[in-house]
Write the structure tokens for this entry.
Amino acid sequence: MSSAKQVSIRGRSRYSTSKIVFSIVALVVAAVWFFPVYWMINSSLLSNVVLSSTTPTFFPDLLHGGGSLDNFATVFQGGSFLPALGMSVLIALIVVVVCLLFAFLAAVAISRFRFRGRTSFVLAILFVQMLPAEGLFIAQYKLMASVDLLNTVIGISILYIASVVPFTIWMLRGFVAGIPAELEEAAMVDGLSRTQAFLRITFPLLAPGLVASGVYAFLQSWNEFTVALVVLPDQASQTLPLWLRGFIQSSASKAIDWGQVMAASTLVAIPVIVFFLLVQGRMTSGLVGGAVKG
Amino acid sequence: MTTIAPHRRKRSLAPYALLIPTVIVLLLAMGYPLAWQLSTSLQKFGLAQQFGQPAEFVGLGNYIALATDPYLWTVVGRSLLFCLTAAALTMAVGTLLALLMRVLPAAVRVILQIALLLAWAMPVVAAMTVWNWLFDWRRGVVNWLLSAVGLPFEQHNWLQSPLSFYFVAVVIVVWMSVPFVAFSLFAGLTQVPDEVLEAAQMDGASPAQRFWRITVPIIRPVISIVLLLQVIWDLRVFTQIKLLQDAGSIASETNLLGTYIYQLGAGSSDFGTASAVSIFVLVLTVGISWFYIRSMLKEDAA
Amino acid sequence: MKRKIAGVTAVALASALVLAGCSTGGSTSSGSVAASTDGRGKTVTMWLVGADTPDKLRSYLVDEFHKETKGTLTIQQQDWGDIVTKLTTALPDKNNTPDVTEMGNTQSPTFTNVGAFLDISDMYSELGGSKLLQSFVDAGKVGGKNYTLPYYFGSRYVFYRKDVWAKAGITVAPTTLDQFNKDVATIASANPDNIPNFSGLYLGGQDWRDGISWIFANGGDIASESNGKWTATLDDPKTMVGLKQLQAIYQNASKAPNDAKDSNQYIYINDDDAIPGATATDPTTPVSLSAATIMAPGWAHWSIGTKGTDAATGKVTRTFDDSIYGVFPLPGNDGKPAPVFAGGSNIGISAKSKNPGLAKTLLKIMFGKTYQTMLGQNGLGPANSDYTSSLGTDEFATALIQSAENSKLTPAAPGWASVEASSVLEEFFSKIGTSTDLRALAKEYDAKITPMLNSK
């Protein structure tokens, strides 16, 4: 944890008061950002009647039968959560892996080479992100129907990769450009092969960029529902956001059970947290700082 | 920042080979929809055409009709204001948080990061439901808290007037976007060598000087792309506005470009006009980011 | 730079040409196909919207369909919020279209007008003919031919607090609309419990689906048709009478915000929802009751009532206590209930269906006595009036049947979907309360709505 060490050295020597102030500010900010999440979890433990109250319930009163896991049980009883989870995980994995790979290759091309068409490419990947998606649904449907990829993991993955890869390229391009090519070359002079040089020198320096882009790609595909709605019309192939939406909209003739909706939302958010915990170490590990200081 | 000179000496096919996968996937997924959008924007294309009747080619008719419709310009003005406010706030807060993370003790930093991540991880539909509750005029926690400290917010309706509707929308959009900006910039900041900062500090540079003269130039590529993306996304923000409109407010007074396109297309089946607005938004986005793109390309080519 | 942008565009266009061949489906008319019972090895897909059709009914259809045709019926549930998008993309696609689909009754004219559905005029009498709910039949009719038919109906009626009405001095339920208007204003000003912002009738500013009854009750309408041209009629003298009554309600009887919509009205006539505090002696919080009367779809009765706790599960429950709560159809001034906006669904066979014969057999099952009765037993108004009695005889069934008898639908104009999508009626209604010149306001919105009605 060398970066943390750096900070603490500085902190001890000169900024101990400001460090406390910073910490307090950070905790307040954390509380503000966390509150809606807390509200979701809190509500998932309450019954619907309680939720329609004019006075907010800040803590589920477990002693008086005020809170329970009933909502979660009901959500699971539906039986469609696990298939949707499987679908979402599969799509997210494909999107993250393929996207990072494609984007890395493209980032190397545009940051390490000068070639004809480079500027066009850079502009093109910028422009494709500027087209509003709200008007595209007919075209996306026709496209997928024409190649018979409606309701398939591959079909939706292609659309997601295409929407995430431009940003990922831009993100990684900054990182690749920030790594002096001389570093790698020097390592090769020292007798490492190109692959070794890449794996030992370049890759660790790229790690934070890969993780940040990976988290982005994951969340984009995890939360997306307007495209999924159109190209995954079959209930059997629905993803978690569609499943969640179905929960909210399931009936025109019944009141929505918000407690269950929040329990369902909490379930959708949990895998993301697991994913983050898996990569969180990478983001701050000594891998990065260590390599720079070599 | 010194740009790295291209180190491949001779022209090669290597860069093209590296781009092939991306180009293929973009062409597959975006080529047809983009072309459809362009050609539909030149036609009178409604539900009947979707069901197989021939579409009438109207040239720039849809565009002309739009350009002469004062409502479009109202929506454009609103969207620009909204976009600039939200993007500026998001960048400011995101940057401050990224810098803050650098100087925090590890434990506090992890707490902050987890809070941000949880907010980011919250499904949009769920997040909007919760925010709608928080600002609900009758049962909302916000009113409850403000009244509890004695302010006249009992049964205050936040979504009724467009201005306070946008205030709520900006709060939500900033809340949702800041984690991404903070994490991206934090990742960028790991590229700033501590030695350089410490050397500058010993030379007597103030924190502000160190930030503007050393940190910013090094993480500029990340800042510029993140800022650009915020502008792009906030200009076409859709889900948040749509779900807020469903909760309250009068749609025509609170429409932004995203909800306007949706209303024209999915709502009224006027796909020709909806496509024309989409293309217009594309051009508008290119327009407002033009200076920026150019300087980025120049810097890139230098 | 221009050259480069042009390059990008050219590439996009090139890929479009590759795909162009696939983008339009052929439009083959299936003509008049007889109902078929040979479904061996075939699958018919039906879309039902929302969870409103109970599982029991779904499995009945699957079993019965298999029994009659030996084929498989797949029922897929769609969501109300997305059904228009789904129908827009899937119905023209012969490889992925559902064979049979449910849709909201106000969505039917839009799709029927563009030829999305199969002509089923030949089955009309067999499926119930004039016994079918006529306003819904009309919503599925173009040029005298039947394309979609009613699936089930719901209705809107009045829920009121007997105790509050009595405390305000009104003990007899009103029998005319004029009396009702007067009563709710009296209750609002009496405000017997001194509740801040108390409504005699809670009517949301954007709630045109309930508010429109005042227009209908006075003989007005949103639009009328002549020679295929639709014209908005908000400034029609009869409509204006209704609008004036609405204005009085917004000004004197309802304290609902002017942006409130047709949703969750039931929470306003419920008593305190507060949770007991940490200790038994903890005082409960102020009442949440804020209206003496609401108008809502019939199903709202599940969410209205006195709060209690289910002994077995510990869950909070609502009991509709007849001594406190009551229902009645909104009265008209002619001795009949005021016409209300009918909720419900239509059902039709996709024009692109590959199994029109089997789809027709499915419709026969759905319009048969057994299924119609099952609908009624589950609180859904059956399409065929012969089976209305299956709804039962409790006060909710009575109010549902009485109010539905006189119910009306929105205009069957081709552009009706645009009117709903643009929220123009919501906007108009939200301005009624504060308008100083109602007629000018009505004219202004007529001018906005008329072109939308005729757009295809």
In short: Residues 378 and 391 of chain C are 7 Å apart (CA to CA).
